């Protein structure tokens, strides 16, 4: 089992204060505060099942030569009829923080198999993934068969259950739509939403389920597919439900699996399980809740002092020895640090208070010396290479930026100082950084499905309508975090399809923060040298040089239209009316023929209402007049059908500007000057 959690940066405290007084202070500090961690754990199999608790008929055994958690027991007999089983992670997980008033995002994925023991007798009933309170980890009595080990006749529908579940059901009860469906349940056995799966769950095929929660949109989603089948149309199932989990569940929850049987038996097994949440470390005074217990403080102080007294001296000696060797070997790196120019904020990189700094040679080894065979792509400031960090057991994407361009160096510093301070499930995570003389290197989490444009325009994989819809919502969620939910407003300035990355489950993650800028929420905009990619840049940004949330929303609207239409924002070789995607779609909107713009490869397999909503919202966001664009929050409300569709003019408006000329730097490093009279000039640079 692999486990990770955030930790407090107390290393500097230990370095600077090596006295018993500082140690006592540290111990009291730990005791007076409670810590909440974001959680990540991974069970590729259950040979090592530490922290997994089983109850009922559940047990650890081999299923098809894989160590699994079998939820139906491993013996056939009468005591397995009308039985319940549970397996859950033993440690409570912080779902929401009452002090910071935030709720975690989380993603969990698991492989499972369901097979009837006797093929002549239909198998019953189901497996469910559940989230519940610490007081409800044991299945209630009389909860077998159709109750899934979650509820019974007395508790069903009671809000005090504090139970949210995703069911995989192969038996039709009176409240079920059929005998092969999935559902999302909230405090009741009757699903809030359900969907029929095309093949029987009991076929014995290995299924992979991914359950995710986006706290921004309050969306709980399920993706279900066969283990060996890629995410293509008609080969997977998507189910979503909007629920405010903090209104249903306590702040700390238990996650796990429940299963039940009726009068027939099946093999029900969980083969692997991964879970990750994103709630940052929070320190809250116990006294604020009124539940401080002095005897517990004393006990913890005693234990910490005992352990620290034995290990502290050894730790300091070891640290000093290691640090001395590191300093002796870092003279060359210090020279390289001076070459960076020490831009604002760069001192944090040098002092090591930002993201992890890698030795340059480690990233050379990880990428096989930046091998061309592992090259993932080429951007305006350098190449991107696939790598593997052995010490962290993780795949990475490494962006190598040449320092021959001063803009490349600025992008390097800007990206590290921006993205390292942000944390959201729809933003690409920066793993670390390094530089050496003429090379600057950034290491990101690896996105197995690459960039969005490779699927839309290079036909890497056909994107089904549910996947496209999910990508738009994910991108919107990430942008909302940047604009409104972080402590400062972050203007990205380069939102485009090639900067939207897709993980293994086709979740959207916005990347490339080299052009991003921090703006105080109350200021709204910042005047800069115009930089970005033609077609995605708002018209007023080209003229006024003012980057703001509205210019980002314009870019989002363009990308949304690209996703729906499967066309680039600018197609120079297309017939005149179709060269500009926004102009063409707006013309069809005015003629009442909006759906003619949709990607023909969808073959009509889409939801008409959602498609119309998405395309109209895309046009609204890409409105030429920035004062008539929505905020990203307003756009999300429309996409969620929480607000009515906007009524746009039948003809695309023409904005009027009379500002001073602006200096422009477009994505391929070409500079030009536009005046208000030249605002119709068309440039077609290579797209980064």
SSE layout and pairing:
Blueprint: E1 2-5, H1 11-16, H2 20-32, E2 33-36, E3 39-43, E4 52-56, E5 59-63, E6 66-70, E7 84-89, E8 93-94, E9 96-97, E10 102-103, E11 106-116, E12 126-132, E13 163-169, E14 181-186, E15 193-196, E16 207-214, E17 219-226, E18 236-242, E19 252-260, E20 266-277, E21 282-285, H3 286-289, H4 294-328, H5 331-339, H6 346-351, E22 356-357, H7 360-366, E23 375-379, E24 382-389, E25 394-402, H8 406-419, E26 430-436, E27 439-445, H9 452-456, H10 465-485, E28 489-491, E29 500-502, E30 508-510, E31 517-519, E32 525-527, E33 530-532, H11 539-544, E34 546-548, H12 549-565, H13 581-590, H14 608-621, H15 632-639, E35 662-666, E36 671-674
Parallel strand pairs: 22-26, 33-35
Antiparallel strand pairs: 1-3, 2-21, 3-20, 4-7, 5-6, 6-20, 7-19, 8-19, 9-10, 11-16, 11-20, 12-13, 12-19, 13-14, 14-15, 16-17, 17-18, 23-24, 24-25, 25-27, 26-27, 28-31, 29-30, 32-34, 35-36
Helix pairs in contact: 2-4, 10-12, 10-15, 12-14, 14-15
């Amino acid at each position: 089992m692999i486990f990770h959690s955030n930790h407090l940066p107390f290393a500097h405290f230990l370095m600077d204060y090596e006295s018993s007084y500082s140690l006592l202070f540290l111990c009291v500090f730990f005791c007076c505060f409670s810590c909440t961690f974001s959680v990540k754990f991974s069970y590729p199999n259950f040979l090592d099942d530490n922290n997994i608790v089983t109850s009922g008929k559940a047990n650890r055994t081999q299923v098809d030569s894989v160590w699994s958690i079998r939820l139906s027991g491993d013996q056939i007999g009468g005591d397995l009829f009308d039985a319940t089983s549970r397996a859950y992670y033993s440690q409570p997980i912080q779902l929401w923080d009452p002090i910071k008033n935030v709720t975690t995002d989380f993603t969990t994925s698991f492989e499972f198999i369901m097979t009837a023991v006797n093929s002549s007798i239909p198998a019953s009933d189901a497996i469910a993934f559940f989230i519940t309170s610490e007081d409800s980890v044991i299945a209630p009595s009389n909860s077998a068969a159709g109750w899934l080990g979650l509820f019974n006749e007395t508790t069903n529908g009671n809000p005090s259950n504090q139970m949210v579940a995703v069911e995989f059901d192969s038996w039709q009860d009176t409240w079920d739509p059929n005998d092969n469906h999935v559902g999302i349940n909230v405090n009741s056995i009757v699903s809030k939403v359900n969907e029929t799966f095309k093949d029987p769950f009991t076929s014995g095929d290995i299924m992979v389920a991914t359950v995710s929660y986006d706290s921004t949109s309050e969306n709980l989603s399920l993706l279900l597919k066969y283990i060996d089948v890629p995410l293509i149309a008609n080969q997977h199932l998507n189910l979503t439900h909007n629920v405010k989990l903090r209104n249903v569940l306590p702040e700390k929850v238990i996650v796990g699996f429940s299963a039940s049987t009726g009068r027939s038996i099946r093999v029900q097994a969980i083969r692997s399980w991964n879970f990750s949440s994103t709630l940052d470390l929070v320190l809250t005074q116990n006294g604020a809740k009124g539940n401080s217990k002095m005897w517990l403080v004393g006990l913890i102080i005693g234990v910490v002092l005992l352990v620290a007294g034995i290990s502290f001296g050894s730790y300091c000696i070891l640290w000093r020895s290691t640090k001395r060797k590191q300093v002796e070997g870092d003279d060359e790196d210090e020279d390289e640090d001076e070459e960076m120019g020490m831009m604002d904020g760069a001192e944090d990189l040098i002092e090591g208070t930002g993201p992890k700094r890698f030795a340059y040679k480690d990233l050379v080894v990880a990428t096989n010396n930046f091998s061309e065979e592992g090259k993932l792509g080429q951007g305006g400031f350098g190449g991107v290479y696939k790598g593997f960090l052995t010490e962290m057991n993780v795949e990475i994407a490494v962006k190598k930026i040449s320092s021959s361009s001063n803009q490349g160096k600025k992008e390097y510093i800007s990206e590290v100082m921006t993205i390292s301070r942000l944390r959201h499930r729809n933003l690409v995570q920066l793993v670390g950084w390094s530089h050496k003389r003429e090379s600057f290197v950034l290491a990101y989490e690896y996105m197995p499905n690459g960039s969005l444009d490779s699927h839309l325009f290079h036909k890497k994989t056909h994107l089904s309508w549910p996947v496209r819809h999910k990508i738009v919502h994910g991108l919107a969620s990430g942008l909302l975090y940047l604009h409104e939910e972080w402590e400062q407003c972050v203007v990205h300035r380069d939102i485009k399809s090639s900067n939207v990355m897709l993980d293994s489950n086709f979740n959207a993650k916005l990347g490339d923060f080299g052009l991003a800028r921090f703006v105080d929420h109350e200021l709204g905009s910042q005047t800069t040298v115009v930089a970005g990619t033609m077609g995605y840049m708002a018209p007023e940004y080209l003229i006024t040089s003012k980057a703001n949330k509205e210019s980002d929303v314009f870019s989002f609207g363009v990308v949304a239209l690209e996703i729906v239409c499967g066309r680039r924002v600018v197609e120079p070789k297309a017939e005149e009316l179709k060269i500009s995607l926004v102009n063409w779609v707006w013309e069809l909107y005015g003629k009442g023929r909006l759906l003619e713009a949709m990607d023909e490869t969808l073959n009509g397999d889409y939801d008409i209402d959602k498609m119309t909503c998405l395309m109209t919202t895309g046009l609204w966001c890409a409105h030429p007049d920035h004062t008539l664009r929505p905020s990203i929050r307003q756009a999300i409300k429309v996409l969620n059908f929480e607000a009515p569709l906007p009524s746009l003019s039948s003809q695309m408006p023409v904005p009027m500007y009379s500002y001073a000329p602006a200096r422009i730097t477009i994505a391929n490093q070409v500079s030009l000057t536009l005046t208000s009279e030249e605002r119709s000039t068309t440039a077609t640079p290579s797209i980064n």
